[in-house]
Specification:
Chain lengths: ~260, ~325
């Protein structure tokens, strides 16, 4: 039998009162793929990623990770299983240095953290691994800066480094480019392009240029329902998708007209 | 990574405080009244430091910390009634009892947060208070007078006020060191991160709950030790020692000294006890002055006394 997809959603459903935010969503993401999830505002992208990461419980359906049912697993256990996420709204420990933010993540996978007496700041293996993760996202030089005083783009990079430091098998990136300036966007896209070699990525993103440049496959979410899944070219040519985006300010990239 | 010189500068304030407390009896502050006052300040300082580990370190604002002191006090009383006065027995029993109480109550309380956590710790504290008040064999509401202080390996060293002073000081330094080391460890890092951003801690794969619970138990154990000292200092124990007002006082010492600074809690305890003493000597209605003064401190002393005394860069977890 073929290897199961790394991430599989089976008929996932979530509703808030009368509003169905996730409507029978089934998806499968094989290892090594960058799978982008796009959709107009209010399509339920964030709700979906919350359910996959474990901060929101679905009403029905199943989430399988590497063939294992993780639907009822809490967030921190999913991370331990290899499912890391970044947040749409930056989520760092502002009082810690960039290095310490990443070292915290390294600590989570390197032995017990019920160690009470040794000064953690002097633990070279933690710091070395953290520094390596910072280098991977081009933040090596900013290791000693308190995370709260980093620029917005740097915080996004830091968050990537934290996610990488958990040694994930799958990266769940919730709008990694949100709020980034044009220059920062270029830098982040370059980083993501490098990461695709080593990680399977599920990407929720508004920046269509980035999505079409990076994704192997794209799923389009409209009113909580997946209306199309396919290669970037197939999605470009899909009439239903184009209709969903008509009148939206976030138009598909130029040159997509058939 | 840190040169000894830098370490000395960073810890200048607590070291100075410890030195002053060590030197005070030799500099003429050796009347029994003065020694009593300092002992009281140091004992409350021990309890305040352990509370500071919770409030400043773990972000757990407990309004029931006096209960853990109560377990220390009543361990002394109950063992005294059974003719057991040896500190080598009393202290471990007191610490174990306080730790167990913290484990059981903490296991429930830490499932909540914010105002709920404050109210639940307050409720557990009051349960301990009313239990103590109903212990008729041990004086109930009226309290219990000890025949003598605890012995240390059969010797009555604690009877000597000078010796007791240095025992309190030694344990204060130990309590401070313990909390400091804990906060700087792997354990402490998870704790501190969970205070600032619990979501982040979950998202790197930690459940903050067991870390917070262990911190709660450790703080309770240290509080129990302070209770043993308090009972010995006054040679009398009453439920009033562990009322919610005492918990409030401890919390206030932490805030007055500066949340986020361990030695701040010691400064807060010293300032609180001395101020209370001075004002009480001034007028019978000293609380009328004390209250507003405390409010002014909270409003205008951001970072507390520790922040006021910090050398340039803000002291964090000093």
């Amino acid at each position: 039998m073929a290897e199961p997809p790394l991430l599989e959603l089976r008929r996932l459903r979530k509703q808030f009162g009368g509003l169905v935010v996730t409507n029978d969503v089934s998806l499968s993401v094989p290892a090594g793929e960058i799978h982008a999830i796009i959709g107009p505002n209010g399509a339920g992208k964030t709700s979906l990623i919350h359910q996959v990461s474990g901060t929101l419980a679905p009403d029905a359906g199943q989430i399988l990770f590497a063939g294992r049912d993780i639907t009822r697993l809490p967030l921190h256990r999913r991370v331990r299983a290899g499912l890391a996420r970044s947040f749409q709204i930056t989520c760092i420990v502002p009082g810690f240095t960039a290095l310490e933010n990443v070292a915290l993540a390294v600590q989570a996978r390197e032995g017990s953290s019920f160690r009470f007496f040794r000064p953690v700041a002097l633990e070279a293996p933690l710091n070395d691994a953290a520094r390596a993760a910072l280098e991977e996202v081009g933040m090596g030089a900013r290791a000693a800066v308190p995370a709260g005083s980093l620029s917005h783009g740097e915080k996004r990079q830091l968050e990537l480094a934290i996610a990488l430091a958990t040694r994930p098998r799958l990266l769940l990136l919730d709008e990694p480019l949100a709020g980034a300036g044009p220059e920062e966007t270029e830098r982040l896209i370059a980083i993501l392009r490098r990461l695709r070699r080593d990680y399977t990525i599920v990407l929720v993103e508004h920046d269509m240029r980035a999505v079409f440049a990076l994704a192997d496959r794209i799923s389009v979410l409209v009113y909580g329902r997946v209306i199309a899944t396919g290669s970037p070219d197939a999605i470009r040519g899909n009439a239903e998708v184009r209709a969903a985006y008509l009148g939206e300010d976030e138009a598909l990239p130029e040159g997509v007209a058939a | 990574m840190t040169a000894p010189g830098a370490l000395l500068r960073r810890e200048a304030v607590p070291l100075l405080v410890f030195l002053l407390l060590a030197a005070a009896p030799l500099l003429g502050f050796s009347h029994s009244h003065e020694l009593t006052l300092m002992a009281r300040a140091m004992i409350l300082g021990i309890a305040a430091v352990s509370l500071s580990l919770l409030v400043g370190g773990a972000g757990l604002v407990s309004l029931g910390h006096a209960a853990s002191m109560g377990f220390g006090c009543y361990a002394v009383v109950i063992l005294d009634a059974a003719n057991i006065v040896e500190a080598a027995i009393v202290v471990p029993v007191a610490i174990a009892a306080a730790a167990l109480f913290s484990l059981v109550t903490g296991a429930v309380a830490i499932r909540t947060s914010g105002v709920h956590f404050i109210m639940i710790t307050l409720a557990f504290g009051q349960m301990a208070y009313f239990t103590a008040a109903s212990l008729a064999p041990y004086g109930g509401d009226d309290g219990y007078t000890l025949y003598a202080r605890n012995t240390v390996f059969g010797r009555d060293w604690l009877q000597d006020r000078m010796a007791f002073h240095y025992v309190c000081l030694g344990l204060l330094v130990l309590a401070w060191l313990l909390c400091r080391v804990l906060l700087a460890s792997r354990f402490g890092r998870v704790l501190r991160a969970a205070r600032e951003n619990p979501q982040r801690v979950l998202a790197v794969g930690f459940n903050p709950y067991p870390f917070r619970l262990v911190a709660y138990v450790i703080a309770g154990a240290v509080g129990g030790l302070a209770g043993v000292l308090l009972a010995n200092a006054t040679e009398f124990v009453a439920p009033a020692y562990i009322s919610w007002q005492r918990s409030g006082e401890l919390l206030f010492m932490v805030i007055l000294g500066g949340v986020g600074s361990l030695h701040g809690a010691i400064l807060g305890a010293l300032a609180y006890v001395l101020l209370e003493e001075q004002l009480a000597a001034l007028t019978e209605h000293w609380r009328m002055i004390f209250g507003p003064l405390l409010i002014l401190c909270v409003l205008f002393l951001r970072g507390g006394l520790a922040g006021l005394l910090a050398p340039r860069e803000a002291a964090r977890h000093g």
